[in-house]
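chain below, 532 aa
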Amino acid sequence: MAGTTREAGIMDEFSNRDRNVFVIRLPRVIDRGALMSRYSRTASLDIRTVYDREFAGNMARGADFYKRVFLDYGDESVAELVTAQVGVQNVTNVAAKVMEEVRIGISFLEKSSRYVRYDKKATDRYLFADYESIGIPRGLASDYEDHCNRLFETYSRFLPLLLKEVCAKNPVGEQRFLSKGKEIGYDALESGEREVAEKAYETAVRARVLDDVRYLLPASTLTNVGMSGNGRSFVNLIQKLERSGLMECKRISGDIFKELDAEMPELIKSAKNQHGQDLQEYLASRDAISFEPSENAGFPEIKLVQYEPERNAVAKVVSLIDFPNRGNSIDIPETAASPDYSVIERISETRRNRRHKLGRAFETVHYLFELAPTYASFREIQRHRMLTMIRKPLTASFGYHVPDLFAANHDLADEYRRLMDESVRTWKEFNMKSGILAAQYVVPFAFRYPIAFYTSLSEAVYFTELRSTPSAHYELREVSWQLADEISRVHPAFKKLFKFVDRSENNLGRIRSEARKEKKLKELGTRGNPQA
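prediction:
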Protein backbone atom coordinates (compact mmCIF):
# COMPACT_ATOMS: atom_id res chain seq x y z
CA MET A 1 0.00 0.00 0.00
CA ALA A 2 1.40 3.38 -1.02
CA GLY A 3 1.76 5.63 1.98
CA THR A 4 2.71 9.19 2.74
CA THR A 5 2.27 8.83 6.51
CA ARG A 6 3.36 6.31 9.09
CA GLU A 7 0.31 6.96 11.18
CA ALA A 8 -2.90 8.64 10.22
CA GLY A 9 -2.57 12.41 10.36
CA ILE A 10 1.21 12.44 10.90
CA MET A 11 3.41 13.61 8.04
CA ASP A 12 6.33 11.28 7.32
CA GLU A 13 9.90 12.43 6.65
CA PHE A 14 9.44 11.16 3.08
CA SER A 15 6.71 11.63 0.49
CA ASN A 16 6.24 7.87 0.33
CA ARG A 17 7.69 4.78 2.00
CA ASP A 18 7.29 2.12 -0.69
CA ARG A 19 8.33 3.59 -4.05
CA ASN A 20 11.76 4.08 -5.61
CA VAL A 21 11.24 7.79 -6.20
CA PHE A 22 10.42 9.99 -3.23
CA VAL A 23 10.90 13.48 -1.79
CA ILE A 24 12.96 13.93 1.38
CA ARG A 25 11.04 16.16 3.78
CA LEU A 26 13.36 16.50 6.74
CA PRO A 27 12.87 19.97 8.23
CA ARG A 28 16.61 20.71 8.61
CA VAL A 29 18.57 21.17 5.37
CA ILE A 30 21.76 19.94 7.05
CA ASP A 31 20.06 16.60 7.76
CA ARG A 32 18.79 16.27 4.18
CA GLY A 33 22.30 16.68 2.81
CA ALA A 34 23.85 14.31 5.35
CA LEU A 35 21.24 11.65 4.64
CA MET A 36 21.66 11.86 0.86
CA SER A 37 25.42 11.61 1.23
CA ARG A 38 24.95 8.14 2.73
CA TYR A 39 24.21 6.84 -0.77
CA SER A 40 27.97 6.70 -1.42
CA ARG A 41 28.91 4.81 1.74
CA THR A 42 26.10 2.42 2.66
CA ALA A 43 25.20 -1.05 1.47
CA SER A 44 21.56 -0.46 2.34
CA LEU A 45 19.20 -0.50 -0.61
CA ASP A 46 17.01 2.18 0.92
CA ILE A 47 18.22 5.33 2.72
CA ARG A 48 14.82 5.57 4.36
CA THR A 49 15.89 2.66 6.54
CA VAL A 50 19.20 4.44 7.12
CA TYR A 51 17.22 7.40 8.40
CA ASP A 52 15.22 5.23 10.77
CA ARG A 53 18.40 3.60 12.05
CA GLU A 54 20.80 6.55 12.28
CA PHE A 55 18.91 9.84 12.14
CA ALA A 56 15.50 9.39 13.79
CA GLY A 57 15.60 10.90 17.24
CA ASN A 58 19.21 12.06 16.83
CA MET A 59 19.12 15.82 16.24
CA ALA A 60 22.92 16.06 16.10
CA ARG A 61 23.39 13.39 13.40
CA GLY A 62 23.54 15.70 10.38
CA ALA A 63 25.80 18.25 12.06
CA ASP A 64 28.13 15.53 13.33
CA PHE A 65 28.40 14.08 9.85
CA TYR A 66 29.58 17.38 8.32
CA LYS A 67 32.05 17.95 11.13
CA ARG A 68 33.63 14.56 10.50
CA VAL A 69 33.51 14.33 6.72
CA PHE A 70 33.46 17.84 5.36
CA LEU A 71 35.72 19.63 7.83
CA ASP A 72 38.10 16.80 8.68
CA TYR A 73 38.47 15.21 5.24
CA GLY A 74 37.57 18.05 2.85
CA ASP A 75 35.02 16.07 0.86
CA GLU A 76 33.48 19.17 -0.72
CA SER A 77 31.04 17.31 -2.97
CA VAL A 78 28.78 16.50 -0.03
CA ALA A 79 28.34 20.24 0.54
CA GLU A 80 26.38 20.35 -2.70
CA LEU A 81 23.67 18.19 -1.13
CA VAL A 82 22.70 20.92 1.34
CA THR A 83 20.61 23.68 -0.23
CA ALA A 84 19.08 26.95 0.91
CA GLN A 85 16.95 29.78 -0.43
CA VAL A 86 18.25 33.24 0.50
CA GLY A 87 16.79 36.67 -0.12
CA VAL A 88 19.11 39.69 -0.29
CA GLN A 89 17.20 42.95 -0.41
CA ASN A 90 18.07 46.61 -0.91
CA VAL A 91 21.48 46.01 -2.45
CA THR A 92 22.94 48.06 -5.28
CA ASN A 93 23.28 46.90 -8.85
CA VAL A 94 27.05 46.96 -8.36
CA ALA A 95 26.83 44.38 -5.57
CA ALA A 96 24.15 42.35 -7.36
CA LYS A 97 26.44 41.88 -10.37
CA VAL A 98 29.26 40.66 -8.10
CA MET A 99 26.89 38.14 -6.53
CA GLU A 100 25.59 36.92 -9.87
CA GLU A 101 29.08 36.11 -11.14
CA VAL A 102 28.79 32.82 -9.24
CA ARG A 103 27.72 30.80 -12.27
CA ILE A 104 27.45 27.27 -10.88
CA GLY A 105 25.36 26.02 -7.99
CA ILE A 106 23.17 29.08 -7.34
CA SER A 107 20.12 30.25 -9.27
CA PHE A 108 19.36 33.98 -9.12
CA LEU A 109 16.21 35.99 -9.64
CA GLU A 110 16.52 39.78 -9.56
CA LYS A 111 14.08 42.66 -9.54
CA SER A 112 13.73 43.90 -13.13
CA SER A 113 14.26 47.51 -14.14
CA ARG A 114 12.46 46.67 -17.40
CA TYR A 115 9.13 45.95 -15.70
CA VAL A 116 9.26 47.71 -12.32
CA ARG A 117 8.96 51.49 -12.07
CA TYR A 118 11.56 53.39 -10.06
CA ASP A 119 9.75 56.73 -9.83
CA LYS A 120 8.36 56.15 -6.34
CA LYS A 121 10.17 57.03 -3.14
CA ALA A 122 10.53 54.85 -0.08
CA THR A 123 10.63 56.71 3.26
CA ASP A 124 11.02 60.04 1.43
CA ARG A 125 14.00 58.80 -0.55
CA TYR A 126 14.51 57.51 -4.07
CA LEU A 127 15.74 53.95 -4.32
CA PHE A 128 19.50 54.43 -4.30
CA ALA A 129 22.00 53.46 -1.62
CA ASP A 130 22.95 55.67 1.28
CA TYR A 131 26.49 57.00 0.80
CA GLU A 132 27.80 55.52 4.05
CA SER A 133 26.68 52.01 3.18
CA ILE A 134 28.76 51.89 -0.01
CA GLY A 135 31.96 53.57 1.11
CA ILE A 136 31.50 57.06 -0.38
CA PRO A 137 33.63 59.48 1.70
CA ARG A 138 31.70 62.00 3.80
CA GLY A 139 33.28 64.84 1.84
CA LEU A 140 31.60 63.56 -1.34
CA ALA A 141 28.25 62.73 0.29
CA SER A 142 26.47 65.90 -0.84
CA ASP A 143 27.69 65.55 -4.45
CA TYR A 144 26.67 61.89 -4.46
CA GLU A 145 23.17 62.57 -3.11
CA ASP A 146 22.60 65.50 -5.48
CA HIS A 147 23.77 63.52 -8.51
CA CYS A 148 21.60 60.46 -7.79
CA ASN A 149 18.58 62.61 -6.97
CA ARG A 150 18.91 64.44 -10.31
CA LEU A 151 19.00 61.13 -12.16
CA PHE A 152 15.93 59.81 -10.35
CA GLU A 153 14.04 63.10 -10.66
CA THR A 154 14.67 63.14 -14.40
CA TYR A 155 13.54 59.51 -14.60
CA SER A 156 10.33 60.44 -12.76
CA ARG A 157 9.62 63.44 -15.03
CA PHE A 158 10.39 61.62 -18.28
CA LEU A 159 8.28 58.55 -17.47
CA PRO A 160 4.75 60.06 -17.82
CA LEU A 161 5.81 62.17 -20.81
CA LEU A 162 7.10 59.15 -22.67
CA LEU A 163 4.10 57.01 -21.74
CA LYS A 164 1.92 59.63 -23.38
CA GLU A 165 4.15 59.84 -26.47
CA VAL A 166 4.32 56.08 -26.99
CA CYS A 167 0.53 55.78 -26.68
CA ALA A 168 0.07 58.60 -29.22
CA LYS A 169 2.47 57.02 -31.73
CA ASN A 170 1.18 53.47 -31.20
CA PRO A 171 -2.58 53.75 -30.47
CA VAL A 172 -4.33 50.60 -29.35
CA GLY A 173 -6.65 50.84 -32.36
CA GLU A 174 -3.71 50.22 -34.71
CA GLN A 175 -2.48 47.09 -32.93
CA ARG A 176 -3.21 43.56 -34.04
CA PHE A 177 -4.16 40.76 -31.67
CA LEU A 178 -4.55 37.00 -31.89
CA SER A 179 -8.17 35.83 -31.91
CA LYS A 180 -9.21 32.24 -32.62
CA GLY A 181 -5.92 31.49 -34.29
CA LYS A 182 -5.89 34.61 -36.49
CA GLU A 183 -4.38 38.07 -36.15
CA ILE A 184 -7.05 40.76 -36.37
CA GLY A 185 -7.33 44.46 -35.62
CA TYR A 186 -8.46 45.83 -32.28
CA ASP A 187 -11.81 47.03 -33.69
CA ALA A 188 -12.64 43.50 -34.86
CA LEU A 189 -12.22 41.97 -31.40
CA GLU A 190 -15.20 40.86 -29.38
CA SER A 191 -15.94 42.80 -26.18
CA GLY A 192 -14.35 40.22 -23.88
CA GLU A 193 -11.27 40.08 -26.07
CA ARG A 194 -10.94 43.88 -26.02
CA GLU A 195 -10.51 43.89 -22.25
CA VAL A 196 -7.63 41.44 -22.55
CA ALA A 197 -6.13 43.42 -25.43
CA GLU A 198 -6.30 46.73 -23.54
CA LYS A 199 -4.56 45.33 -20.48
CA ALA A 200 -1.87 43.76 -22.66
CA TYR A 201 -1.47 47.07 -24.49
CA GLU A 202 -1.04 49.04 -21.25
CA THR A 203 1.62 46.63 -20.00
CA ALA A 204 3.45 46.63 -23.35
CA VAL A 205 3.49 50.44 -23.48
CA ARG A 206 4.83 50.67 -19.93
CA ALA A 207 7.51 48.06 -20.69
CA ARG A 208 8.56 49.96 -23.83
CA VAL A 209 9.00 53.20 -21.90
CA LEU A 210 10.79 51.54 -18.98
CA ASP A 211 13.21 50.05 -21.50
CA ASP A 212 14.43 53.58 -22.20
CA VAL A 213 14.07 55.49 -18.95
CA ARG A 214 16.07 52.86 -17.07
CA TYR A 215 19.21 54.22 -18.80
CA LEU A 216 18.97 57.13 -16.36
CA LEU A 217 19.29 54.96 -13.27
CA PRO A 218 22.65 55.04 -11.46
CA ALA A 219 24.49 51.84 -10.55
CA SER A 220 23.69 52.67 -6.91
CA THR A 221 20.01 51.88 -7.64
CA LEU A 222 18.71 49.38 -5.11
CA THR A 223 17.46 45.98 -6.15
CA ASN A 224 16.40 42.67 -4.59
CA VAL A 225 17.99 39.31 -5.35
CA GLY A 226 16.58 35.87 -4.57
CA MET A 227 19.00 32.93 -4.52
CA SER A 228 18.51 29.19 -4.42
CA GLY A 229 21.68 27.15 -4.21
CA ASN A 230 23.84 24.55 -2.55
CA GLY A 231 26.18 24.97 0.42
CA ARG A 232 29.39 24.69 -1.57
CA SER A 233 28.36 27.54 -3.88
CA PHE A 234 27.25 29.72 -0.98
CA VAL A 235 30.73 29.29 0.52
CA ASN A 236 32.13 30.42 -2.83
CA LEU A 237 29.74 33.40 -2.87
CA ILE A 238 30.68 34.49 0.65
CA GLN A 239 34.38 34.38 -0.26
CA LYS A 240 33.83 36.24 -3.52
CA LEU A 241 31.93 39.05 -1.81
CA GLU A 242 34.55 39.24 0.94
CA ARG A 243 37.41 39.81 -1.49
CA SER A 244 35.57 42.18 -3.86
CA GLY A 245 37.13 45.29 -2.33
CA LEU A 246 33.68 46.85 -1.92
CA MET A 247 32.43 47.80 1.54
CA GLU A 248 28.88 46.89 0.57
CA CYS A 249 29.85 43.42 -0.65
CA LYS A 250 31.87 42.72 2.47
CA ARG A 251 28.83 43.58 4.60
CA ILE A 252 26.58 41.34 2.50
CA SER A 253 29.13 38.55 2.82
CA GLY A 254 28.95 38.80 6.59
CA ASP A 255 25.14 38.90 6.56
CA ILE A 256 24.84 35.80 4.37
CA PHE A 257 27.38 33.98 6.53
CA LYS A 258 25.42 34.84 9.68
CA GLU A 259 22.10 33.65 8.26
CA LEU A 260 23.45 30.41 6.81
CA ASP A 261 25.48 29.71 9.94
CA ALA A 262 22.15 29.13 11.66
CA GLU A 263 21.08 26.65 8.95
CA MET A 264 24.27 24.78 8.04
CA PRO A 265 26.94 25.86 10.56
CA GLU A 266 29.30 22.90 10.17
CA LEU A 267 29.44 23.51 6.45
CA ILE A 268 29.40 27.28 6.05
CA LYS A 269 32.27 27.81 8.53
CA SER A 270 34.63 26.55 5.83
CA ALA A 271 34.24 29.97 4.20
CA LYS A 272 36.31 31.47 7.02
CA ASN A 273 38.48 28.67 8.40
CA GLN A 274 42.23 28.54 7.70
CA HIS A 275 41.71 26.82 4.36
CA GLY A 276 39.19 29.49 3.42
CA GLN A 277 41.53 32.28 4.50
CA ASP A 278 44.39 30.85 2.44
CA LEU A 279 42.13 30.69 -0.59
CA GLN A 280 40.98 34.25 0.01
CA GLU A 281 44.55 35.52 0.03
CA TYR A 282 45.36 33.72 -3.20
CA LEU A 283 42.23 34.97 -4.99
CA ALA A 284 42.72 38.53 -3.75
CA SER A 285 46.26 38.50 -5.09
CA ARG A 286 45.18 36.95 -8.38
CA ASP A 287 42.33 39.39 -8.96
CA ALA A 288 43.99 42.60 -7.73
CA ILE A 289 42.62 45.55 -9.70
CA SER A 290 45.04 48.03 -11.25
CA PHE A 291 42.72 49.53 -13.84
CA GLU A 292 43.71 52.77 -15.55
CA PRO A 293 40.78 54.33 -17.43
CA SER A 294 41.49 56.08 -20.70
CA GLU A 295 39.57 58.82 -22.45
CA ASN A 296 37.20 57.64 -25.19
CA ALA A 297 38.90 54.28 -25.65
CA GLY A 298 36.83 53.67 -28.78
CA PHE A 299 35.73 50.11 -28.13
CA PRO A 300 33.92 48.53 -31.07
CA GLU A 301 30.24 47.78 -30.59
CA ILE A 302 31.04 44.15 -31.36
CA LYS A 303 34.23 42.41 -32.45
CA LEU A 304 34.85 38.73 -33.19
CA VAL A 305 38.38 38.33 -31.86
CA GLN A 306 39.12 34.63 -32.32
CA TYR A 307 37.65 31.56 -34.04
CA GLU A 308 38.86 28.38 -35.74
CA PRO A 309 38.78 27.59 -39.47
CA GLU A 310 35.33 26.57 -40.64
CA ARG A 311 36.43 23.22 -42.05
CA ASN A 312 37.98 22.20 -38.72
CA ALA A 313 34.85 23.27 -36.83
CA VAL A 314 32.49 21.35 -39.12
CA ALA A 315 34.69 18.24 -39.14
CA LYS A 316 34.80 18.24 -35.34
CA VAL A 317 31.03 18.65 -34.95
CA VAL A 318 30.21 15.98 -37.55
CA SER A 319 32.66 13.51 -35.99
CA LEU A 320 31.23 14.02 -32.51
CA ILE A 321 27.63 13.74 -33.71
CA ASP A 322 28.56 10.41 -35.29
CA PHE A 323 30.61 9.19 -32.29
CA PRO A 324 27.77 7.36 -30.46
CA ASN A 325 26.88 5.45 -33.63
CA ARG A 326 30.28 3.94 -34.40
CA GLY A 327 32.42 1.29 -32.75
CA ASN A 328 35.71 2.98 -33.63
CA SER A 329 37.34 6.02 -32.01
CA ILE A 330 36.96 9.64 -33.06
CA ASP A 331 38.34 10.45 -36.49
CA ILE A 332 38.55 14.15 -37.32
CA PRO A 333 40.08 14.48 -40.81
CA GLU A 334 42.77 17.14 -40.97
CA THR A 335 43.67 17.19 -44.65
CA ALA A 336 41.51 14.47 -46.16
CA ALA A 337 38.19 14.89 -47.93
CA SER A 338 35.83 17.63 -46.81
CA PRO A 339 33.53 16.86 -43.88
CA ASP A 340 29.89 16.06 -44.51
CA TYR A 341 28.27 19.50 -44.48
CA SER A 342 24.86 17.93 -45.04
CA VAL A 343 24.81 16.82 -41.39
CA ILE A 344 24.63 20.48 -40.30
CA GLU A 345 21.76 21.11 -42.69
CA ARG A 346 19.93 18.03 -41.43
CA ILE A 347 20.25 19.17 -37.81
CA SER A 348 18.87 22.57 -38.77
CA GLU A 349 15.89 21.04 -40.55
CA THR A 350 14.92 18.94 -37.52
CA ARG A 351 14.53 22.00 -35.27
CA ARG A 352 10.92 23.21 -35.06
CA ASN A 353 11.35 26.11 -32.59
CA ARG A 354 14.06 27.84 -30.56
CA ARG A 355 13.50 25.51 -27.61
CA HIS A 356 14.90 22.65 -29.71
CA LYS A 357 18.51 23.18 -28.68
CA LEU A 358 21.59 21.97 -30.49
CA GLY A 359 23.38 18.92 -29.09
CA ARG A 360 26.62 18.80 -27.14
CA ALA A 361 28.75 18.39 -30.24
CA PHE A 362 28.10 22.07 -30.96
CA GLU A 363 29.53 23.03 -27.56
CA THR A 364 33.02 22.18 -28.88
CA VAL A 365 33.15 25.08 -31.38
CA HIS A 366 34.09 28.37 -29.69
CA TYR A 367 34.26 32.09 -30.40
CA LEU A 368 35.90 34.95 -28.48
CA PHE A 369 33.96 38.22 -28.69
CA GLU A 370 34.58 41.71 -27.45
CA LEU A 371 31.42 43.68 -26.84
CA ALA A 372 30.54 47.16 -25.58
CA PRO A 373 26.88 47.06 -24.50
CA THR A 374 25.44 49.52 -22.05
CA TYR A 375 25.57 48.61 -18.38
CA ALA A 376 21.79 48.16 -18.59
CA SER A 377 22.14 45.43 -21.20
CA PHE A 378 25.20 43.85 -19.61
CA ARG A 379 22.99 43.07 -16.63
CA GLU A 380 20.93 40.77 -18.86
CA ILE A 381 23.84 39.33 -20.83
CA GLN A 382 25.42 38.27 -17.52
CA ARG A 383 22.43 35.98 -16.89
CA HIS A 384 23.76 33.62 -19.60
CA ARG A 385 26.01 31.52 -17.39
CA MET A 386 27.42 29.42 -20.22
CA LEU A 387 29.31 32.51 -21.40
CA THR A 388 32.83 32.77 -20.00
CA MET A 389 32.83 36.50 -19.30
CA ILE A 390 35.62 38.88 -18.32
CA ARG A 391 34.66 42.42 -17.38
CA LYS A 392 36.17 45.72 -16.28
CA PRO A 393 35.16 47.99 -13.42
CA LEU A 394 32.21 50.19 -14.40
CA THR A 395 33.40 53.62 -15.57
CA ALA A 396 32.22 56.61 -17.59
CA SER A 397 35.18 56.31 -19.97
CA PHE A 398 33.56 54.63 -22.97
CA GLY A 399 30.67 56.86 -23.95
CA TYR A 400 26.94 56.48 -23.44
CA HIS A 401 23.85 55.42 -25.34
CA VAL A 402 21.03 57.82 -26.26
CA PRO A 403 17.76 55.82 -26.08
CA ASP A 404 15.43 55.86 -29.08
CA LEU A 405 12.55 57.58 -27.30
CA PHE A 406 14.82 60.37 -26.04
CA ALA A 407 16.46 60.84 -29.43
CA ALA A 408 13.03 61.36 -31.01
CA ASN A 409 12.30 64.29 -28.67
CA HIS A 410 14.73 67.18 -29.06
CA ASP A 411 14.13 68.71 -25.63
CA LEU A 412 14.41 65.40 -23.78
CA ALA A 413 17.51 64.44 -25.76
CA ASP A 414 19.28 67.71 -24.90
CA GLU A 415 18.49 67.39 -21.19
CA TYR A 416 19.53 63.74 -21.21
CA ARG A 417 22.88 64.51 -22.85
CA ARG A 418 23.60 67.31 -20.37
CA LEU A 419 22.88 64.91 -17.52
CA MET A 420 25.13 62.20 -18.97
CA ASP A 421 27.95 64.72 -19.53
CA GLU A 422 27.53 65.79 -15.92
CA SER A 423 27.77 62.11 -14.96
CA VAL A 424 31.15 61.90 -16.67
CA ARG A 425 32.44 64.85 -14.64
CA THR A 426 30.99 63.40 -11.42
CA TRP A 427 32.57 60.02 -12.07
CA LYS A 428 35.99 61.61 -12.71
CA GLU A 429 35.81 63.48 -9.42
CA PHE A 430 34.78 60.36 -7.50
CA ASN A 431 37.40 58.20 -9.21
CA MET A 432 40.10 60.68 -8.22
CA LYS A 433 38.92 61.15 -4.60
CA SER A 434 37.39 57.78 -3.64
CA GLY A 435 38.93 55.29 -6.08
CA ILE A 436 37.81 53.24 -9.06
CA LEU A 437 35.58 50.82 -7.11
CA ALA A 438 33.51 53.34 -5.14
CA ALA A 439 33.19 55.58 -8.22
CA GLN A 440 31.19 52.85 -9.98
CA TYR A 441 28.09 53.76 -7.96
CA VAL A 442 27.56 57.13 -9.68
CA VAL A 443 27.64 55.78 -13.26
CA PRO A 444 24.22 55.55 -14.97
CA PHE A 445 23.04 52.42 -16.79
CA ALA A 446 23.43 54.28 -20.13
CA PHE A 447 27.22 54.09 -20.19
CA ARG A 448 29.05 51.59 -22.39
CA TYR A 449 30.56 48.69 -20.51
CA PRO A 450 33.20 46.72 -22.45
CA ILE A 451 33.26 42.98 -21.81
CA ALA A 452 34.94 39.99 -23.38
CA PHE A 453 33.23 36.64 -23.54
CA TYR A 454 33.99 33.19 -24.84
CA THR A 455 31.00 31.27 -26.14
CA SER A 456 30.28 27.94 -27.74
CA LEU A 457 28.29 27.70 -30.96
CA SER A 458 25.48 26.03 -29.03
CA GLU A 459 25.21 28.88 -26.53
CA ALA A 460 25.52 31.49 -29.30
CA VAL A 461 22.50 30.03 -31.09
CA TYR A 462 20.53 29.85 -27.84
CA PHE A 463 21.47 33.43 -26.87
CA THR A 464 20.70 35.01 -30.24
CA GLU A 465 17.38 33.25 -30.67
CA LEU A 466 16.20 34.07 -27.15
CA ARG A 467 17.41 37.67 -27.08
CA SER A 468 16.09 38.53 -30.54
CA THR A 469 12.44 37.81 -29.74
CA PRO A 470 10.14 40.87 -30.04
CA SER A 471 9.73 40.97 -26.25
CA ALA A 472 13.49 41.33 -25.71
CA HIS A 473 15.10 44.75 -25.20
CA TYR A 474 15.89 46.37 -28.53
CA GLU A 475 19.57 46.78 -27.64
CA LEU A 476 19.88 43.05 -26.97
CA ARG A 477 18.03 42.30 -30.20
CA GLU A 478 20.68 44.25 -32.09
CA VAL A 479 23.46 42.45 -30.21
CA SER A 480 21.86 39.13 -31.14
CA TRP A 481 21.64 40.02 -34.82
CA GLN A 482 25.29 41.12 -34.86
CA LEU A 483 26.49 37.98 -33.06
CA ALA A 484 24.61 35.74 -35.50
CA ASP A 485 25.89 37.73 -38.47
CA GLU A 486 29.52 37.62 -37.31
CA ILE A 487 29.50 33.85 -36.77
CA SER A 488 27.70 33.31 -40.09
CA ARG A 489 30.28 35.51 -41.82
CA VAL A 490 33.28 33.42 -40.71
CA HIS A 491 31.43 30.08 -40.63
CA PRO A 492 28.73 30.24 -43.35
CA ALA A 493 28.12 26.50 -42.92
CA PHE A 494 26.53 27.26 -39.53
CA LYS A 495 24.30 30.08 -40.76
CA LYS A 496 21.25 27.82 -41.03
CA LEU A 497 21.56 26.89 -37.37
CA PHE A 498 20.49 30.43 -36.41
CA LYS A 499 17.09 29.46 -37.67
CA PHE A 500 14.91 31.31 -35.18
CA VAL A 501 16.77 34.59 -34.85
CA ASP A 502 13.84 37.03 -35.04
CA ARG A 503 14.44 40.16 -37.13
CA SER A 504 10.83 41.32 -37.25
CA GLU A 505 9.90 44.87 -36.29
CA ASN A 506 7.45 45.65 -33.51
CA ASN A 507 7.25 48.97 -31.68
CA LEU A 508 5.48 47.34 -28.73
CA GLY A 509 7.49 44.16 -28.55
CA ARG A 510 5.79 42.68 -25.49
CA ILE A 511 2.22 43.12 -26.66
CA ARG A 512 1.79 39.57 -27.98
CA SER A 513 3.29 37.85 -24.96
CA GLU A 514 1.31 40.14 -22.65
CA ALA A 515 -1.90 39.34 -24.54
CA ARG A 516 -1.25 35.60 -24.09
CA LYS A 517 -0.63 36.16 -20.39
CA GLU A 518 -3.74 38.29 -19.90
CA LYS A 519 -5.88 35.72 -21.70
CA LYS A 520 -4.64 32.93 -19.42
CA LEU A 521 -5.18 35.09 -16.33
CA LYS A 522 -8.73 35.85 -17.43
CA GLU A 523 -9.41 32.16 -17.94
CA LEU A 524 -8.12 31.55 -14.40
CA GLY A 525 -10.33 34.34 -13.11
CA THR A 526 -7.45 36.41 -11.73
CA ARG A 527 -4.88 38.99 -12.77
CA GLY A 528 -1.37 39.56 -11.56
CA ASN A 529 -0.12 42.91 -10.33
CA PRO A 530 3.21 43.67 -12.02
CA GLN A 531 3.76 46.73 -9.85
CA ALA A 532 3.18 45.03 -6.52
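The chain has three domains: 1-81, 84-290, 302-512. Residues 141-169 form the longest helix (29 residues).
thats it, cya
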